[in-house]
Amino acid sequence: MIRAIIVSLCCAFALNAPAHADALSSFSQLKNAGLLVVDTQGRAIRADNNQRSFIPASTTKLVTAWLALNRWGENHRFQTNFYFDQRSKTLSVFGGGDPFLVSEEIAIIAGQLRQLGLDRVDTLVLDGSMFTDGLILPGTSRTNNPYDAVPSALAANFNTVNLKKVGGKVRSAEAQTPLTPFAKSLARGFKKKTLRVNTGRKPQQAERYFGELLLAMLKKQGIPVSNRIVHGAIAPQAPFYQHSNSRTLGDMIRPMMKYSTNFIANQLVLVMAAEHYQRPANARDVQQYMQDNLRADFNWQQFTFQEGAGLSRKNRVSPQQLVQLLERFKPWRHLLPEVEPGVFAKSGTLKKVSTLAGYIVDNGEWKPFALMMNQSVPYKLRNRIATALRRTL
After folding, report:
1. Would you state the torsion angle of the CA atoms of residues 244, 249, 252, 257, taken in this order, to the nearest 10 degrees?
2. Is pLDDT at 6 greater than 70 in this prediction?
3. Residues whose CB falls within 8 Å of the CB of residue 236, separated by 6 or more in sequence, listed in order
4. Is the predicted pLDDT of residue 7 greater than 60, yes or no?
C-alpha cells in the first residue's frame, strides 16, 4: 500500500511538473508583463519587471479595500438618515452612499420605521447630494450591464434590476424584491427569459428606484403611502431614524473581492472622498484622495488611480507597489477569495489586460505576489502561473 502511494505521488509530480514549467515558461516569453513574489521577510523570491507600471484592472480593488479598511476598520457600518414630518406626512432620506442597501436591508428599514411610529407617507423626499449630480467615474461604459452601474448616494441592489418574464408578463426575478414602476419600465424590448440591467446613467433614476422600493416595503408593513417622490436637499435636523447597515465593511469587501463588484468599490472611494473633503464627491476628488493617501502612506511616486474599481485604462501601478500594499493588507487577508488551492488573490481583466495579486500560502506562510500582464494571454494563464509559483517556490 505504501509503495502504491509513493508511486502515485511520483506519477502525479511527473504529470504536474511539465504543466508548471510550461506556465512559467509562457510568462518568461511575454513582452509586456511584470511579476514579484516575496517571502515573509519581504525578500524577493522572483522578480520580473517588478518596478514597471502596468494597467491593474480590478486588482485596483485591493487598493480601494486597503484605503477603506485603513480608514474605517473592518467593523465599520454605513449609515442612512431618515426624517419624518408628522404634520405633512413627509418622509425624507439623506443618502450616505451605503454600498449594500439591498432589498433585505430596505425591508429591515421599513420595519424599523413602522416600529418608531411612521403611520403614513404622502411625500417621499430623496437627498442624494453627498455625490455630485450626474457623476460618472472614468472607465464606465455606456452599456446596461450591471458592471457599468453608476454610483449614487442612495442606491438599491447595487443600482441594478433583476427581471424575468412569466407567461409574457414582466416579473421581479427575486422573491425579496417587489416589481416597481421604474423597474418595469426597464423591460421595454425585453425578449429574454431573464434580464439583469443597471438603472441607467442618471443617478436620480437610481435614487428613484430606491424610493420606489422603500415605499413598496412600507406598504408591506401596512403603512399607507402615496407614489409622490421628489428630489431635494434636506435641512440639517435630528434624524427620526438613523439606520446602520446590518453588514460590516468587511462583510461588504468580501463579496466585492469574490465577484469583483465595481459598484461597491466606487461607492467606497466616493464616500471616503466626500467625508475627507467635506463636499459632494466627484471624480477629481476621488483621484486626489486615492493618490494623496497612497503617497503619504507608501511614498509612491510613479502611479495613477482615477477610480476605485479598475475600469479605467489610465490607472497605473507596479507589481512592486502592489506587493508593498499587500504587506500591509495582511490583517485583512481573510477577505480575499481562494482562486486556486493555496492562492488567495484578486484578479483583474480588461481587453489585453490580465492581472492577479494576493498571497501564495506555503507551509502556513502567506507570501505576497503581484502578476501583471498587459497583452493578450490565455484567460487562465494567470491562475496557472500562480499555481506553478506555489509548487516551485
Report:
1. 170
2. no
3. none
4. no
Q: What percent of the chain has pLDDT over 90?
A: 89
CA distance 388 to 393: 8
DSSP secondary structure of 177-226: SPPPHHHHHTTTT--SSEEEEE--S-HHHHHHHHHHHHHHHHHHTT--B-
Q: What is the pLDDT of residues 112-145, one digit of tens each?
A: 999 999 999 999 999 999 999 989 999 999 999 9
Q: Can you give the pLDDT at residue 285?
A: 98
Q: What angle do CA 101, 107, 112 make, to 5 degrees?
A: 105
Give 263-312 as a DSSP string. HHHHHHHHHHHHHHHTS-B-HHHHHHHHHHHHHHHH---S-B-SSSSS--
Write down the residue that cell numbers 453608476 correspond to: 150
pLDDT beyond 60 at 10: no
Say which residues have a Cβ less than 8 Å from residue 215's Cβ, sequence separation at least 6. Answer: 121, 124, 225, 227, 229
Q: Which residues contact 140 (CB under 8 A, 6 or more apart)?
A: 148, 150, 311
Q: Look at residue 167 in the predicted model and tell me its pLDDT.
A: 84
- How many residues does this entry show for the chain? 393
pLDDT of 375 strictly over 60: yes
Distance CA 34, CA 47 (A): 8
- Inter-CA distances, 72 with 69, 108, 393, Å: 5, 24, 35
Instruction: Supply 263's cell numbers.
Output: 459598484
Tell me if 199 sits within 8 A of 227, measured CB to CB.
no
Q: What is the pTM of this model?
A: 0.92
Secondary structure class of 368 (helix, strand, coil): strand
Q: How far apart are CA 342 and CA 229, in angstroms?
A: 51
Phi-psi region of 207 (alpha: psi -120 to 50; beta: other; left: phi over 0): alpha
Helix (H, G, I), strand (E, B) or coil at 234: coil
Q: How far apart are CA 37 and CA 386, in angstroms?
A: 10
Q: Over the stretch 283-315, which tens digit does the pLDDT of each residue have?
A: 999 999 999 999 999 999 999 999 999 999 999
- The answer to whether residue 12 scores a pLDDT higher than 70 is no
